[in-house]
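User: Some background: our group keeps a shared notebook of sequences we're curious about, and every so often someone picks one and asks for a predicted structure to add to the entry. Today it's my turn. The entry only has the sequence so far, pasted here. Could you supply the structure so I can complete it?
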Amino acid sequence: MKKRIFYEFTISASLALVLITLIVSSCNFKFGDPSLLTEPTVDYSDSILTISIPRQSRSTSQINIYRQDVTKYKAANYDKAEILPIGVIFPSNLSSGGSTYQFQDRMVCAKHLYRYSVRYTEKKGKYYSEWSNVVTIAADAIAYDSEADDDDLTYLSEDAYISYDPTDYTFELSGKITAPSLINDFSTMYEPALLVKNDSTSQVFQLPASVANKIKKGDDSTVKFSIRNILSEQFLGTDIEILGILGQYKQYKASEDDSTSKFAFRAGEDESTSTGSEGSTGSEGTGDSESTTGTGTGTGSTGDSETSSDSENANNTAEEEEEKPIMRIMWTKPVQINILKYPDNIINIPEGAATDGFDYSRSVIY
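Assistant: Of course. Here's the predicted structure to add to the notebook entry:
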Protein backbone atom coordinates (compact mmCIF):
# COMPACT_ATOMS: atom_id res chain seq x y z
CA MET A 1 0.00 0.00 0.00
CA LYS A 2 2.81 2.42 0.92
CA LYS A 3 4.60 1.64 -2.35
CA ARG A 4 1.44 2.42 -4.30
CA ILE A 5 0.99 5.75 -2.52
CA PHE A 6 4.65 6.63 -3.10
CA TYR A 7 4.34 5.66 -6.77
CA GLU A 8 1.22 7.79 -7.25
CA PHE A 9 2.89 10.72 -5.48
CA THR A 10 5.94 10.47 -7.74
CA ILE A 11 3.77 10.42 -10.87
CA SER A 12 1.79 13.47 -9.64
CA ALA A 13 4.94 15.40 -8.82
CA SER A 14 6.42 14.64 -12.23
CA LEU A 15 3.26 15.78 -14.00
CA ALA A 16 3.20 18.97 -11.93
CA LEU A 17 6.83 19.70 -12.83
CA VAL A 18 6.10 19.19 -16.53
CA LEU A 19 3.03 21.44 -16.27
CA ILE A 20 5.01 24.22 -14.56
CA THR A 21 7.74 23.96 -17.21
CA LEU A 22 5.19 24.29 -20.00
CA ILE A 23 3.57 27.31 -18.36
CA VAL A 24 6.90 29.07 -17.86
CA SER A 25 7.98 28.30 -21.42
CA SER A 26 4.73 29.51 -22.94
CA CYS A 27 4.88 32.74 -20.97
CA ASN A 28 8.52 33.33 -22.00
CA PHE A 29 9.51 34.30 -18.45
CA LYS A 30 13.03 35.72 -18.00
CA PHE A 31 14.52 35.45 -14.55
CA GLY A 32 17.64 37.51 -15.31
CA ASP A 33 21.34 36.84 -14.88
CA PRO A 34 22.31 36.85 -11.18
CA SER A 35 25.86 37.90 -12.14
CA LEU A 36 24.61 41.22 -13.53
CA LEU A 37 24.09 44.28 -11.34
CA THR A 38 21.05 46.54 -11.17
CA GLU A 39 20.47 48.35 -14.44
CA PRO A 40 20.72 52.14 -14.80
CA THR A 41 17.50 54.07 -15.22
CA VAL A 42 17.01 56.33 -18.21
CA ASP A 43 14.82 59.42 -18.30
CA TYR A 44 14.12 61.60 -21.31
CA SER A 45 12.57 64.96 -20.53
CA ASP A 46 13.03 68.55 -21.68
CA SER A 47 15.07 67.22 -24.63
CA ILE A 48 17.70 65.82 -22.28
CA LEU A 49 18.43 62.09 -21.91
CA THR A 50 19.79 61.38 -18.44
CA ILE A 51 21.26 58.04 -17.37
CA SER A 52 21.13 57.47 -13.60
CA ILE A 53 23.72 54.90 -12.57
CA PRO A 54 23.39 53.18 -9.18
CA ARG A 55 26.32 53.68 -6.85
CA GLN A 56 27.76 50.26 -5.93
CA SER A 57 30.78 50.82 -3.68
CA ARG A 58 33.41 53.29 -2.57
CA SER A 59 36.09 51.36 -4.43
CA THR A 60 34.64 51.97 -7.90
CA SER A 61 37.46 53.52 -9.92
CA GLN A 62 35.56 54.07 -13.14
CA ILE A 63 32.25 53.33 -14.83
CA ASN A 64 32.01 52.68 -18.57
CA ILE A 65 28.69 53.45 -20.28
CA TYR A 66 27.37 51.47 -23.27
CA ARG A 67 24.48 52.21 -25.61
CA GLN A 68 22.36 50.23 -28.04
CA ASP A 69 20.20 51.83 -30.74
CA VAL A 70 17.38 49.27 -30.94
CA THR A 71 15.15 51.27 -33.29
CA LYS A 72 15.25 48.67 -36.07
CA TYR A 73 14.88 45.62 -33.80
CA LYS A 74 11.98 43.80 -32.23
CA ALA A 75 12.16 43.42 -28.45
CA ALA A 76 13.17 39.77 -28.73
CA ASN A 77 16.17 40.74 -30.87
CA TYR A 78 17.52 43.71 -28.92
CA ASP A 79 20.61 41.69 -28.05
CA LYS A 80 21.60 41.73 -31.73
CA ALA A 81 21.99 45.52 -31.83
CA GLU A 82 25.51 46.94 -31.84
CA ILE A 83 26.97 47.76 -28.43
CA LEU A 84 28.66 51.15 -28.58
CA PRO A 85 30.88 52.49 -25.76
CA ILE A 86 29.88 56.14 -25.32
CA GLY A 87 31.80 57.30 -22.26
CA VAL A 88 33.37 56.91 -18.84
CA ILE A 89 32.71 58.34 -15.38
CA PHE A 90 35.44 58.69 -12.72
CA PRO A 91 33.52 58.71 -9.41
CA SER A 92 36.31 60.08 -7.21
CA ASN A 93 36.32 63.33 -9.16
CA LEU A 94 32.59 63.93 -8.77
CA SER A 95 30.96 65.66 -5.82
CA SER A 96 30.49 63.35 -2.84
CA GLY A 97 27.11 62.10 -1.67
CA GLY A 98 24.06 60.69 -3.38
CA SER A 99 23.10 57.18 -4.43
CA THR A 100 23.49 57.57 -8.21
CA TYR A 101 25.84 59.06 -10.79
CA GLN A 102 24.46 61.05 -13.72
CA PHE A 103 25.53 60.89 -17.36
CA GLN A 104 23.76 62.83 -20.09
CA ASP A 105 23.65 61.52 -23.65
CA ARG A 106 22.71 64.13 -26.23
CA MET A 107 24.15 62.27 -29.21
CA VAL A 108 20.71 60.85 -29.91
CA CYS A 109 18.31 61.12 -32.84
CA ALA A 110 14.60 61.90 -32.94
CA LYS A 111 12.24 58.90 -33.09
CA HIS A 112 15.05 56.48 -32.19
CA LEU A 113 14.91 53.91 -29.36
CA TYR A 114 17.87 53.47 -27.01
CA ARG A 115 18.89 51.42 -24.00
CA TYR A 116 22.00 51.51 -21.80
CA SER A 117 24.25 49.32 -19.69
CA VAL A 118 27.30 50.10 -17.54
CA ARG A 119 30.44 48.39 -16.32
CA TYR A 120 31.96 49.04 -12.89
CA THR A 121 35.71 48.71 -12.42
CA GLU A 122 36.43 47.56 -8.87
CA LYS A 123 39.55 46.36 -7.07
CA LYS A 124 38.39 42.75 -7.45
CA GLY A 125 37.35 42.96 -11.09
CA LYS A 126 34.86 44.36 -13.58
CA TYR A 127 31.10 43.99 -13.13
CA TYR A 128 28.33 44.63 -15.65
CA SER A 129 24.77 45.78 -15.13
CA GLU A 130 21.57 44.62 -16.76
CA TRP A 131 20.29 46.64 -19.71
CA SER A 132 18.13 49.64 -18.86
CA ASN A 133 14.59 50.36 -19.87
CA VAL A 134 14.16 51.39 -23.52
CA VAL A 135 13.60 55.10 -24.04
CA THR A 136 12.05 56.66 -27.14
CA ILE A 137 13.20 60.09 -28.32
CA ALA A 138 10.23 62.28 -29.20
CA ALA A 139 9.67 63.17 -32.84
CA ASP A 140 9.62 66.91 -32.03
CA ALA A 141 12.58 66.73 -29.65
CA ILE A 142 15.63 68.97 -29.84
CA ALA A 143 17.66 66.07 -31.16
CA TYR A 144 19.39 65.13 -34.38
CA ASP A 145 17.50 64.17 -37.53
CA SER A 146 15.46 61.00 -37.27
CA GLU A 147 17.10 59.66 -40.43
CA ALA A 148 20.57 60.00 -38.90
CA ASP A 149 22.47 57.35 -36.94
CA ASP A 150 25.78 57.00 -35.07
CA ASP A 151 27.74 57.18 -38.33
CA ASP A 152 26.38 60.69 -38.90
CA LEU A 153 27.48 61.88 -35.46
CA THR A 154 31.21 61.27 -35.80
CA TYR A 155 34.09 62.07 -38.12
CA LEU A 156 33.70 61.52 -41.85
CA SER A 157 36.60 60.05 -43.82
CA GLU A 158 37.00 61.44 -47.32
CA ASP A 159 39.56 59.01 -48.78
CA ALA A 160 41.73 59.28 -45.67
CA TYR A 161 44.36 56.59 -45.17
CA ILE A 162 47.46 55.78 -43.12
CA SER A 163 50.93 54.83 -44.38
CA TYR A 164 52.96 52.88 -41.82
CA ASP A 165 56.77 52.90 -41.76
CA PRO A 166 57.98 49.87 -39.75
CA THR A 167 61.57 51.16 -39.71
CA ASP A 168 60.83 54.06 -37.38
CA TYR A 169 57.28 53.08 -36.27
CA THR A 170 55.60 56.17 -37.65
CA PHE A 171 52.22 56.84 -39.24
CA GLU A 172 51.53 59.24 -42.06
CA LEU A 173 47.90 60.33 -42.12
CA SER A 174 46.79 61.52 -45.55
CA GLY A 175 43.48 62.55 -47.03
CA LYS A 176 40.66 64.50 -45.47
CA ILE A 177 38.77 63.82 -42.24
CA THR A 178 35.92 66.20 -41.47
CA ALA A 179 33.67 66.89 -38.49
CA PRO A 180 30.00 65.84 -38.64
CA SER A 181 27.87 68.61 -40.12
CA LEU A 182 24.96 67.87 -37.77
CA ILE A 183 26.84 68.92 -34.62
CA ASN A 184 27.51 72.60 -33.94
CA ASP A 185 31.04 73.46 -32.78
CA PHE A 186 32.07 69.80 -32.87
CA SER A 187 35.75 70.65 -33.40
CA THR A 188 35.84 72.98 -30.41
CA MET A 189 34.36 70.36 -28.10
CA TYR A 190 35.84 67.06 -29.28
CA GLU A 191 39.47 66.07 -29.73
CA PRO A 192 40.35 63.37 -32.30
CA ALA A 193 41.72 60.23 -30.66
CA LEU A 194 42.99 56.86 -31.89
CA LEU A 195 41.18 53.62 -31.00
CA VAL A 196 43.50 50.62 -30.76
CA LYS A 197 42.80 46.95 -29.94
CA ASN A 198 44.92 43.93 -29.04
CA ASP A 199 43.83 40.39 -28.16
CA SER A 200 42.62 41.34 -24.68
CA THR A 201 41.64 45.01 -24.57
CA SER A 202 40.99 48.19 -26.50
CA GLN A 203 41.95 51.73 -25.52
CA VAL A 204 41.62 55.30 -26.75
CA PHE A 205 44.79 57.38 -27.13
CA GLN A 206 45.12 61.11 -27.63
CA LEU A 207 46.65 62.09 -30.97
CA PRO A 208 49.52 64.61 -31.28
CA ALA A 209 48.63 68.27 -31.76
CA SER A 210 49.79 68.26 -35.39
CA VAL A 211 47.32 65.46 -36.24
CA ALA A 212 44.51 67.04 -34.24
CA ASN A 213 45.01 70.36 -36.04
CA LYS A 214 44.90 68.67 -39.45
CA ILE A 215 41.63 66.93 -38.62
CA LYS A 216 40.05 70.01 -37.06
CA LYS A 217 40.89 72.07 -40.14
CA GLY A 218 39.51 69.35 -42.40
CA ASP A 219 42.36 69.73 -44.90
CA ASP A 220 43.92 67.03 -47.06
CA SER A 221 47.55 67.56 -46.03
CA THR A 222 49.79 64.72 -44.89
CA VAL A 223 51.10 64.65 -41.33
CA LYS A 224 53.61 62.24 -39.81
CA PHE A 225 53.77 61.12 -36.18
CA SER A 226 55.23 58.35 -34.03
CA ILE A 227 52.64 55.69 -33.28
CA ARG A 228 54.87 53.96 -30.74
CA ASN A 229 55.15 57.06 -28.59
CA ILE A 230 51.40 57.34 -27.98
CA LEU A 231 50.65 53.71 -27.06
CA SER A 232 50.68 52.03 -23.64
CA GLU A 233 53.03 49.12 -22.87
CA GLN A 234 50.43 46.41 -23.38
CA PHE A 235 50.08 47.45 -27.02
CA LEU A 236 53.79 47.06 -27.75
CA GLY A 237 55.45 43.80 -28.72
CA THR A 238 52.12 42.27 -29.79
CA ASP A 239 49.71 42.37 -32.72
CA ILE A 240 47.42 45.39 -32.55
CA GLU A 241 44.52 46.48 -34.71
CA ILE A 242 43.86 50.14 -35.50
CA LEU A 243 40.08 50.43 -35.23
CA GLY A 244 39.85 54.06 -36.25
CA ILE A 245 39.60 57.65 -35.09
CA LEU A 246 36.84 58.93 -32.82
CA GLY A 247 35.87 62.16 -31.12
CA GLN A 248 36.76 62.35 -27.42
CA TYR A 249 35.37 64.95 -25.04
CA LYS A 250 36.75 65.34 -21.52
CA GLN A 251 34.95 67.13 -18.72
CA TYR A 252 37.42 68.36 -16.12
CA LYS A 253 36.66 69.01 -12.50
CA ALA A 254 36.57 72.75 -11.93
CA SER A 255 39.14 74.08 -9.50
CA GLU A 256 38.17 76.22 -6.52
CA ASP A 257 38.93 79.38 -8.49
CA ASP A 258 37.23 78.14 -11.66
CA SER A 259 33.56 77.38 -11.18
CA THR A 260 32.76 77.23 -14.91
CA SER A 261 31.69 73.90 -16.37
CA LYS A 262 33.38 72.79 -19.57
CA PHE A 263 30.87 70.02 -20.29
CA ALA A 264 29.13 71.70 -23.24
CA PHE A 265 27.50 69.27 -25.65
CA ARG A 266 26.39 72.01 -28.00
CA ALA A 267 26.95 75.72 -28.05
CA GLY A 268 25.61 77.31 -24.88
CA GLU A 269 24.63 74.03 -23.19
CA ASP A 270 26.19 72.84 -19.94
CA GLU A 271 25.50 69.91 -17.68
CA SER A 272 25.33 70.26 -13.92
CA THR A 273 27.78 68.34 -11.76
CA SER A 274 26.50 64.99 -10.48
CA THR A 275 27.21 63.03 -7.35
CA GLY A 276 29.83 60.34 -6.78
CA SER A 277 32.43 58.64 -4.64
CA GLU A 278 36.03 57.44 -4.93
CA GLY A 279 37.92 56.36 -8.06
CA SER A 280 40.70 57.33 -10.47
CA THR A 281 41.34 58.76 -13.88
CA GLY A 282 42.09 56.77 -17.03
CA SER A 283 43.09 53.15 -16.63
CA GLU A 284 43.70 50.03 -18.64
CA GLY A 285 41.17 47.26 -19.07
CA THR A 286 40.35 44.00 -20.79
CA GLY A 287 37.60 43.05 -23.19
CA ASP A 288 36.33 43.00 -26.75
CA SER A 289 35.46 46.10 -28.71
CA GLU A 290 32.91 46.81 -31.39
CA SER A 291 34.48 48.00 -34.66
CA THR A 292 33.02 49.85 -37.62
CA THR A 293 33.57 49.72 -41.32
CA GLY A 294 34.66 52.75 -43.26
CA THR A 295 36.48 54.12 -46.27
CA GLY A 296 40.06 54.97 -46.95
CA THR A 297 42.31 53.52 -49.63
CA GLY A 298 44.65 55.09 -52.15
CA THR A 299 47.99 56.76 -52.49
CA GLY A 300 49.29 60.23 -51.77
CA SER A 301 52.32 62.38 -51.30
CA THR A 302 54.41 62.38 -48.17
CA GLY A 303 54.59 65.30 -45.81
CA ASP A 304 56.71 66.76 -43.05
CA SER A 305 56.93 65.01 -39.73
CA GLU A 306 55.70 66.55 -36.53
CA THR A 307 57.91 69.49 -35.64
CA SER A 308 59.56 70.00 -32.27
CA SER A 309 57.30 72.99 -31.60
CA ASP A 310 54.22 70.84 -32.26
CA SER A 311 55.53 68.21 -29.88
CA GLU A 312 56.33 70.80 -27.24
CA ASN A 313 52.89 72.37 -27.52
CA ALA A 314 51.25 68.95 -27.33
CA ASN A 315 53.30 68.05 -24.26
CA ASN A 316 52.47 71.34 -22.57
CA THR A 317 48.77 70.85 -23.27
CA ALA A 318 48.90 67.27 -21.98
CA GLU A 319 50.68 68.38 -18.80
CA GLU A 320 48.08 71.10 -18.19
CA GLU A 321 45.24 68.61 -18.69
CA GLU A 322 46.84 66.04 -16.39
CA GLU A 323 46.76 68.61 -13.59
CA LYS A 324 42.97 68.73 -13.85
CA PRO A 325 41.03 65.68 -12.60
CA ILE A 326 38.75 64.21 -15.26
CA MET A 327 35.11 63.79 -14.27
CA ARG A 328 33.65 62.31 -17.43
CA ILE A 329 34.69 61.34 -20.95
CA MET A 330 32.38 61.14 -23.96
CA TRP A 331 33.12 59.27 -27.20
CA THR A 332 31.65 59.30 -30.66
CA LYS A 333 31.58 56.21 -32.82
CA PRO A 334 34.98 55.54 -34.46
CA VAL A 335 35.48 55.98 -38.19
CA GLN A 336 37.79 53.40 -39.74
CA ILE A 337 40.97 54.62 -41.43
CA ASN A 338 42.71 51.95 -43.49
CA ILE A 339 46.47 51.31 -43.33
CA LEU A 340 48.03 50.87 -46.77
CA LYS A 341 49.55 47.41 -47.37
CA TYR A 342 47.98 46.14 -44.11
CA PRO A 343 44.52 44.92 -45.20
CA ASP A 344 43.52 43.86 -41.68
CA ASN A 345 44.84 47.10 -40.12
CA ILE A 346 47.03 44.89 -37.89
CA ILE A 347 50.63 45.83 -37.09
CA ASN A 348 53.22 44.88 -34.46
CA ILE A 349 55.38 47.52 -32.77
CA PRO A 350 58.38 46.56 -30.56
CA GLU A 351 58.43 47.60 -26.93
CA GLY A 352 59.59 51.11 -26.16
CA ALA A 353 58.31 54.37 -24.72
CA ALA A 354 54.68 54.06 -23.65
CA THR A 355 51.77 56.07 -22.29
CA ASP A 356 48.33 55.27 -20.89
CA GLY A 357 45.03 55.25 -22.77
CA PHE A 358 41.39 55.23 -21.68
CA ASP A 359 39.66 51.86 -21.40
CA TYR A 360 37.18 51.40 -24.27
CA SER A 361 36.68 47.67 -23.88
CA ARG A 362 33.83 45.34 -23.03
CA SER A 363 34.15 41.67 -22.15
CA VAL A 364 30.56 40.49 -21.92
CA ILE A 365 28.33 39.71 -24.88
CA TYR A 366 24.73 40.40 -23.85
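Suggested note for the entry: The longest helix spans residues 2-27. The helical segments are 2-27, 186-189, 209-217, 308-322.
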